[in-house]
Amino acid sequence: ADPACRLLTIVGPGGSGKTRLALEAARHHTEPDHLLSTQHFHDGVFFVPLAGMSGAGQSSAATPRQADGLLAAIAEAVGFAFPSGAEQGQQLLAFLKSKTLLLVLDNFEHLLHDEFAAPEVNLLERLLHQAPQVKIVTTSREPLNLQEEWVLRVEGLAYPAIDMPLTNRAEETVADVAAYSAVSLFLQRARQSKMDFTLTAADIPHVVRLCRLLEGLPLALELAATWERDLSCGEVVAEIERGVDFLATRLRNLPARHRSLRAVFEHSWQILSAAEQNALQKLSVFRGGFDREAAAQVAGATLPMLARLTDKSLLRRAEDPVGRGRYDMHEMIRQFAGEQLADQPEEAAACRLVHGRYYAQWTQSHDADHFGATQVLMLRFMRLEADNLRIAWQHLVAVQATAELDAFVQGLAMFFSEESRHSEAITLLQQALDWLNDLATLTTAQERLLARLLWTQGALCIQIGDFLRAERLEQDCLALAQQLDESHLVAKAYYRLTQVYVARNEFTRALACAQEGLALFRKLGDERGETNIYTMLGRIYSRTGDYPTSTQHFQAALAYLRRAQDFSSIILVLTAIGANAIKAGEYTQAQTHLQEAYRLRKQVWGLVSLPEILLHLGIVAEAAGEYTQAEAHWQEGIAAGHKFGPENIAVAQLVTQMQKRLGTLATNIG
Fold first, then answer.
1. pLDDT confidence of 367, banded at 50, 70, 90?
2. What's the chain's average pLDDT?
3. How far apart are CA 182 and CA 475, in angstroms?
4. Can you give the pLDDT at residue 546?
C-alpha cells in the first residue's frame, strides 16, 4: 500500500466483486501479523453500506436528504452520536479529526447524482483535508473524480482466454481450468446447489464458455451455478446464449459494461414462474430489506415463495434483532426487478401506494413502543426500516395520500429525531409542506395534515436550535388548530412554544404557554401531555431559582414516566432533580437520583453516560471529600463530551466546567 493513497475507489460493474475485495482488504488491516498489513488503524476499520440510501428514479430534490443520510451512515458505523444544535458535517469531522481509522464505503455510485461535485463527494473531500489519519476505500461503478482519488478497476474474476474445443481433456486439464478464480467460484456454488456436482472433461468447454459469456462477474457466476440443480452445463450455456442478443442493445441509459450481467438477470427472470416474477418485481419497492409480514402485505409473497426466490439467489435471508427472518436482494437485482415493475405503470403505482400505506400503519401501530419497556428494541427495528420509511413517505407524498401521511408523520419524525437525524426528517416533511402550500384550496383533511406537519416541523427545528423558525411554525400550527377546533393539537403547540421560550430565556411567555397547555391537557385527560408540561415547568422554575417548586414539578413528571417506562425521559428528569438537589445543598438526595440516571444510561442505551450526569456526580463526590471518585467522574465526563465534538455548545460548556473543576481539585489537594 502506498502511504500517499488516502482515497481508493474500487471501480467495476455491478456484481464484479468490488465489495468482497474491499472487505478482504479491510480484513488484512485488522490482522497485524498479516503479510499484506502495512498500515495499522488503531481506531478501527468500519464498513458503511450505502446501497439503500437511494434508487433509480429519484429526483435531484433528494440531494440534501442523501447527504444527511451519508453523514448518519458513517456516524452510525463509527459509533458517533449527533447532538443537537450544530452543523452535523462539522461535528462528524471534528470527531474524526484525531482518529486513525479506515472507512469502507460500499456502493457509493448511488450517491453520485451528476458530473458536478455532489454534497456526498464534498463530504469526503472535507474529511480527507480535516482528518489526516483517516483513509477511505469506496466501491463504485464509476470514479468519484476527485484529485485525491486513486482508482483500482475490477473487471471480474480470471477465466481462460479462449473457448476450448468440445473434446475430452486429460484430468490435469480439469485441474488447470479449475484453478481460474471464475471457474473455482462457479464450481463452489454449483456444489452448494447440487452436492454431487463434479466437473468433467466434457464440461470444460461449456464452463469456460459460460465464464467468458459472463465475463467472470461473481454475481452472474453464482446465479448461473444455481441452475446446475436442473440443467447440465451445456444447457445452462445454451439458455444464456439465447439472450445474448440483448448484449448488443443500444439503449442510451444502459452502460455497456452492464450488458452481460443484464443477460444473466434477463435469463433468471425468464425461467421464473409468473407468480415468482410478480412477487420479485413487487418486492423491488422495498429498500434496505423487509420481513415476512411486510412481504406478504405489500407483495403478496408467502413464506414458500420467499424460500423459492432465496434458493434461486434472488433474495438473501438474515435475522432481525429478535431472530426472525429478514430478507433483502442485491441492489442490481432490485433495480432490474424494479424496471420490470415500471413497465406496468398502474401496477407499479398501486404497489408503491400499498408499500406507503403499510409503513404508515406500521409506524402508527408502534407509536406507544417509543415510550415503554420495548423502547430500545423498537429503535433497533426502525433502524432496519429507515430506508423503507423514507421511500414510503416519498411514495405517499407523490400520490398526495392525505390520510396515510397524517397517520405517518409523527412516527416518522420521532424515529429520525431519536437517531439525531433531524435535518433528514425536516427535508422529508418539507416535501409534504411544499405540496400543501402549492394548493389553491385545502380540504378539511388536508388542513389537519398541514397543522400536524407544522407542529412536527417546529419540534424538529427546536432540536437543531432554530428557535425563530420553530416559533413561526408553532404559531402557525396554533392558529390553524384553533380554527379547526383541534384541542389536542392546540395543547401540543403550547407545549412546543413553551420549549422555544425557555430556550430563549423568555420565562414569562414560557409560563403563560405552559399554563395554557396544562389546562388543555388536563381537560383532555392526556397524562403524557401533562407530564411534558410538568417537565417544562420544572425547567422554568429551576432557571428562575425556585428549586423546591422546580423539583415538585419534576417529581410529578417522574411518577408518570416510571409507570410508562419512558427511559430516555426518566434519565433527563432524574438528572434535573439531581442538579436541583445540589443547588439546595442536599447531596445525598442528589447522589441517589444521579446514580440512578447513570445506571439507566449505561443499561438502556449501552452508551457513554451523559456529561451532565457525570459533572453533577463529580460535584457530589467532591462535597463528600471523595476526591479520587470526583476526578474519575469528571475524566469520564470529559471523554464522553469529546465524542459529541466541539460544535455542541452545551456539551462543550459542560466539558469546560469539568476541566476547570479538575484543575481546582488538583490545586486544592496538591
1. low
2. 83
3. 65
4. 95
User: Is 7-153 CATH 3.40.1710.10?
Assistant: no
- Contact criterion met (CB below 8 Å) for 646 and 652: yes
All 3 cell numbers of residue 539? 425547567
Q: At what angle do helices 331-342 and 259-270 cross, to 10 degrees?
A: 60
Q: Output the 3-class SS for 376-407.
A: HHHHHHHHHCHHHHHHHHHHHHHCCCHHHHHH
Contact 343, 277 (CB under 8 A): no
Question: pLDDT of 240-261, one tens digit each?
Answer: 776 433 323 333 443 343 344 5
Contact between residue 10 and residue 22 where contact means Cβ atoms under 8 Å apart = yes
Reported pTM: 0.65
What kind of architecture, by CATH, is found in domain 274-343? Orthogonal Bundle (1.10)
Q: What end-to-end distance do the CA atoms of the chain give, in Å?
A: 50
Residue 517 and residue 498 in contact, taking contact as beta carbons nearer than 8 Å: yes
- Cell (9 digits) for 303: 413464506
- Cα 549 to Cα 538: distance, rounded to the nearest angstrom: 7
- Judged by DSSP in three states, 183 sits in helix
Q: What average pLDDT does the segment 7-35 reach?
A: 76
Q: How far is CA 261 from CA 421, 424, 509, 537, in A?
A: 36, 34, 65, 63
**CATH 1.25.40.10 for domain 574-670:** yes
Burial degree of 505 (CB within 10 A; 0-12, 13-18, 19+)? exposed
Q: What is the DSSP letter of 458?
A: H
Any idea where the domains of the chain sit in the sequence? 7-153, 171-267, 274-343, 574-670
136: β partners? 7, 103
Please give the single-letter amino acid code of residue 189: R
DSSP 284: T
Residue 560 amino acid letter:
Y
Contact (CB, 8 A) for 634 and 614: yes
- Name which of 381, 389, 427, 380 is nearest 408 in CA terms: 389
Q: What is the pLDDT of residues 69-126, one digit of tens each?
A: 788 889 989 989 887 766 788 889 999 999 999 999 998 877 775 443 467 788 899 9
Contacts of 465 (CB under 8 A, 6+ apart): 84, 85, 86, 503
DSSP 165: P
What does the alpha-carbon distance between residue 4 and residue 569 come to, in Å, rounded to a whole number? 48
Take residue 482 and report the three cell numbers written for it: 384553533
Nearest CA among 463, 424, 418, 388 for reference residue 71: 424
Largest CA distance in the chain: 96
Cα 353-376-638 angle, rounded to 5 deg: 125
Is residue 593 within 8 A of residue 577, CB to CB? The reply is: yes
In order, the DSSP letters of 28-91 are HHT-TTSTT-----TT-EEEEE-GGG--TT--GGGHHHHHHHHHHHHHHHHTPPPPSSS-HHHH
Kindly list the strands in the beta sheet with 316-319, ordered across the sheet, starting from the edge strand earlier in the chain: 290-291, 325-328, 316-319
